[in-house]
Amino acid sequence: MKKRILALLLGGVMVLGLAACSSSGSQSPSPSASAPAASAPAESTPAEPASAVKVGGIMLHDENSGYDMAHIEGLTTACKNLGLDLDTQLIIKYNVPEDENCYDAAVDLAEQGCTIIFSDSYGHQSYMQQAASEFEDVIFVSCTGDNAAASGLANLKNIFPYTYESRYVSGVVAGMKLKELLDAGTVTDPYVGYVGAYPYAEVVSGYTAFFLGIRSIVPEAHMDVQYTQSWYDPAKESEAANALMARGCVIIGQHADSTGAPSAVQAALDGGKTAYSVGYNVDMLSVAPAAALTSAQNVWSVLYQTTLDKFLKGEEIPADFATGIKDGAVSISALGQSCAEGTAEKVEEVWAGLKDGSLNIFDCANFTVGGEHLTSYTESYGMDGAETITDGVFYESVIRSAPYFDLRIDGITELTAE
Predict the structure, then answer these.
(1) Which stretch is the leader sequence (predicted)?
(2) pTM, whole model, 2 decimals?
């Protein structure tokens, strides 16, 4: 069943070219592909008027995690923009782990009267699916999840921004700094490090886009990835950053949710080491005022508001929804004081290319795997053999909203992968 759904999705996307921007701006395919609509009461207009609707949120951590803070702000902003009362119509549960506690939280929210419930972590999705199967009149949205279309449940949804767009642009910022350091003779080896949480496609897609952004400026750049095996662990993230700098990396990127890596880079810079940081989720200038160049960011309010607006209007919510810079769903934070001259202008140029579709981030002409440029790839994990490359471009977040780019391209070395 899943294979048939994905095949239909791919065909529909490639042939019809559904509206909105694609993974690298405005590529021809759709930014999201919905599963064929199934009949379900959850797709109908809410039973209560908007003033009586309750929205639920399940967060893996609290506001101390940059990732969760972005979700908290995104959900509250969306509710506020749509006229919902944050005190009476929004219930958020914090520090909910990726286990049965998530199911319990989802059930509790449904029993409190929430008719649409969001969770913010990939590991929540199986428990959200369990709850969705029991509360057919409640919409469950698993942010960053990947199984809504295949689940057969009309009330289970997935949403995800085109994070790789902001990753790529933040990589361009890093590349500009790296080129400045090379041109000045400050460094001779264009060596970059990356602190990743897990070797999942979400992380691989992001660090690859970041690396390709760097290579668009410094073609000879190479990068090592150190995993922490945790989404949020300040100590491990700091240790990973220090280990990468000890190997000679001069710029450290991250797909991990704390300030551990930027703080470590700032400390190294203060100690006389040449080192700079590109963060994630939030502006890192407060912890790394001289080391932070920028951060890749998701504007979750765009996805939350689009989904909630459809729900409040009684419109169908697609099984998968993804979008990017064309809808303002991704961004980068303010450029730091250490950014190279001309960075702001280059960033605007790259954003323009993503918006008008002239720039394809995962253009296979720009990378090799095992020394070869790919023309076909059907082995993305969980994609049941679906073709992901069309006309020489890997189209990310088109068949489903969650990333599935899991290729290990030349120039990147994973130091720890389990």
Answers:
(1) 1-19
(2) 0.86
